[in-house]
Amino acid sequence: MTLRSRYARDEQRHFMSLLDRIRYSQRRDAGGFRRFVVAGLRLGWVAHGLADRLRGFPAVFAVSDDVVRVVDALDGFESRSSAVGDAVLRLREEGWFPGWRNEAFAVAPDFHAAPLLRIERSAARAFGIRCYCVQLNGMVRREGELQAWIARRSLSKPVGPGKLDQIVGGGMPIGVGLRDNLIKECAEEASIPAALARQARPVGAVAYLRQDGAICDDEVLFNYDLPLPPDFTPVNTDGEVAGFELWPLARVKAALADTDEFLFDVALSLIDFLIRQGIVDSSDPDYIEICEGLWSAPRAAAGSAA
Question: Which of 254, 259, 234 is nearest to 244 (CA)?
Fold first, then answer.
């Protein structure tokens, strides 16, 4: 499976439990990838096919059997960003990075560190770079029962078309803070006014590092909860959502455990939500393993190059 055909794949998976969801997020084979190193730090993983193609850019990448390095001569943020960006644009013309977003992500050792370069969002995952996003649980209490707004992704989405999703979610562009990004996504995806979006409460994060064909997905999802007025109805404005439904949490749990309807990474965020709401608790024999698995990404995508 190449990067070029990744989004054309229609892989059907059958889940038997919430733990199956967790285990799916942990599958990976490090032997299929080479370390991606910038300024002496390991910041990602590149599949062998893409790594071999990067040999065609010797002024940008030094490629060996186990490492892809941005050359040391590119020793600043702008020089690295420009050179890597030019190479990525040429590779895009060959079809390497489907789902092009025209949106730059930061490449950094950790979330709060100064970025070493910026890279197009669709290429960030191809290089196995740790990406960050915000995810919002929109909650409504009706007749004493807590329910959640569930979105259906547009069929035009490059990732997970038609899948179920949370009411709001979005990747973190470079130079944008978490709260500002959440407010922006709330307006675009669900027409949640800024004053209401600011009331969203940060409730933690989940993470994963898993192989998806020729991509090593490394992501952290910052989770937020927002109680919404009973008469509020979300309306999408950016074309990324086909529609919304209000679901009882028991229905959310059943769909996560028994179907492939939810987008893979969103499922992890929702399992975390169900744990905090007591819908998933210690009566589940897999409870401890589920909780441990919600932070299943070892800090393998950053560190010394050795």
Answer: 234
DSSP state of 242: E
| pTM for this predicted structure | 0.91
Residue range 225-231: average pLDDT?
96
Pick one of 3.20.110.10, 3.40.50.300, 3.40.50.360, 3.30.750.160 as the CATH number of 3-10+28-126: 3.30.750.160
Among candidate residues 154, 95, 103, the one with its CA nearest the CA of residue 132: 103
Kindly report the backbone phi and psi dihedral angles of residue 204, in degrees, each rounded to the nearest multiple of 5, phi listed first: 120, -160
Q: Checking DSSP bridges between strand 215-227 and strand 201-212, what pairing results, if any?
A: antiparallel
115 secondary structure, DSSP code: P
For the segment 65-104, what is each residue's pLDDT rounded down to a tens digit?
A: 999 999 999 999 999 999 999 999 999 999 999 888 899 9
* Other CB atoms within 10 Å distance of the CB of residue 1: 14
Measured CA to CA, the distance from residue 217 to residue 239 in angstroms comes to: 25
CB 36 within 8 A of CB 43: yes
Domain extent listing, the chain: 3-10+28-126, 131-293
Helix, strand, coil proportions of the chain in percent (round to 5)?
A: 30, 30, 40
Q: What is the dihedral of CA 200, 204, 209, 215, to 10 degrees?
A: 10
CB of 225 within 8 A of CB of 201? yes
Neighbours of 168 (CB within 10 A): 28
- Record the tokens describing residue 175, joined without a space: 């130079």
Q: What residue spans of the chain are helical by DSSP H? A: 18-24, 48-54, 77-93, 121-126, 178-190, 194-197, 249-258, 264-276, 287-293
Whether the Cβ atoms of residue 109 and residue 302 lie closer than 8 Å to each other: yes
Give CATH for domain 131-293.
Answer: 3.90.79.10
- For the chain, the distance separating the N- and C-terminal CA atoms, rounded to the nearest angstrom, is 29
